[in-house]
Design goal:
By secondary structure, the protein is an alpha/beta fold. It has two domains: 10-179, 3-Layer(aba) Sandwich (Rossmann fold), CATH 3.40.50.1970; 183-373, Dehydroquinate synthase-like, alpha domain. Helices cover 50% and strands 12% of the residues. The chain is built from 15 helices and eight strands. The N and C termini lie far apart (40 Å).
């Protein structure tokens, strides 16, 4: 029961909370760089809406709308140049996990200088506070609006990397559930499963504590209950999964992730598989190890989410949920060939930051078995 907890992010949750952006931004800065993806904000009229909301409160808005899925170090560098050119004093991230992660990294390099690579874990862990950030998620999965992580892609190394530290926790998170009406079914499924992977991996993390467990258990329960109807477009269900995603963000902010993320990253880098689907390709097999080595904790989770006594335990419960929401079920289905398995396994084993957080030390043979079982 020994732990410390500090979370400085102010959260505004609910329908139409986006209208409060100007009020929040005006006390943090006067010139904002709004970091978004390439299509969503423009397609649905949010560029003009955000500009109007900000300017009504005296905040000038500049837009960097070049963030791709799984943002690259190169994209962060371009964002830094735009921030320098405009002399901004506030960052606003609007989008899924990618714009939020990109905005955090852009902020760090803009505020403190140096190359992006100098801030990548473990070379540099951000401890200082850069310019303020307001995070506005438009999907219900990453929880990045309340986390200290910025996950990037090093395209030269072909690998996921991370900037991490308390300093990049957003100052304000605005979770306006009305933006989720535009979420396509496949993205609803992938991002909702991402939230589930955060919750379950945090729950079984080496660094878990009673507080992270509290967030993780409730997040898991909600995703199992509400993700299928969210995928079908029910807005009440989408709001519930939005809340679950935020809770899971709190959980990983304390406890981190492990097997699902560590072994799943390579599937995203190599095959472009959406992050949530990649994690959930691995997670059912990871649960076999969790259940074997932490049976009491597994029973508590199953009991909490109302699945106690289900044949096959947590693994089968997750597989059933995946089928319900249309997630890919095998590596072959996403285009992996048997000839690629060896190189995928070798690359996956390099994600030591995540794998070392597992409650179970996986051998090379264990990792191979996981990939063989999902092939």
């Amino acid at each position: 029961m020994n732990f410390e907890y500090k979370h400085p992010t102010k959260v505004l949750f609910g329908e139409n909370t986006l209208e409060k952006l100007g009020e929040e931004a005006s006390v943090l800065g006067k010139k904002a760089l709004v970091v978004t993806g390439r299509t969503f904000a423009k397609k649905y009229g949010y560029i003009d809406r955000i500009r109007k909301i900000l300017e009504e409160r005296g905040v000038k808005a500049f837009f960097f709308s070049e963030v791709e899925p799984n943002p690259s170090i190169e994209t962060v560098k371009r964002g830094v140049e735009v921030a320098k050119m405009e002399g901004v004093d506030l960052f606003i991230a609007f989008g899924g996990g990618s714009p939020m992660d990109a905005a955090k990294a852009i902020d760090v390099v803009y505020a403190f200088g140096g190359a992006v690579e100098e801030w990548i874990y473990p070379n540099k862990v951000v401890k200082e506070k850069p310019y303020p950030i307001i995070a506005i998620p438009t999907t219900h999965g990453t929880g990045s609006e309340v986390t200290k992580y910025s996950v990037l892609t090093d395209t030269k190394a072909g690998k996921k990397v991370v900037v991490v530290g308390e300093g990049i926790l957003p100052d304000v998170a605005i979770l306006d559930s009305s933006v989720l009406e535009h979420l396509p079914k496949v993205q609803a499924a992938s991002t909702g499963l991402d939230a589930l992977s955060h919750a379950i991996e945090a729950y079984f993390s080496k660094r878990s504590n009673p507080l992270s467990d509290l967030f993780a258990l409730e997040s898991t329960r909600i995703v199992f209950e509400s993700l299928p109807c969210s995928v079908e477009g029910d807005m009440k269900c989408r709001e519930q999964v939005f809340y679950a995603s935020m809770l899971a963000g709190y959980a990983i902010n304390i406890a981190g992730t492990n097997i699902g993320h560590g072994l799943g990253y390579e599937l995203t880098v190599r095959k472009g598989l959406p992050h949530g689907f990649a994690n959930l390709m691995i997670l059912p097999e990871a649960c076999v190890y969790y259940e074997r080595y932490l049976p009491d904790k597994t029973r508590r989770l199953l009991e909490y989410i109302g699945l106690k006594g289900i044949p096959g335990g947590l693994k089968e419960a997750i597989l059933l949920l995946k089928r319900k929401v249309g997630a890919p079920m095998s590596l072959r289905e996403i285009g992996v060939t048997r000839e690629e398995l060896d190189s995928i396994i070798e690359k996956a084993l390099t994600y030591e930051r995540n794998l070392s957080n597992s409650p179970v030390e996986l051998s090379r043979e264990d990792v191979r078995k996981i990939f063989e079982n999902i092939f």
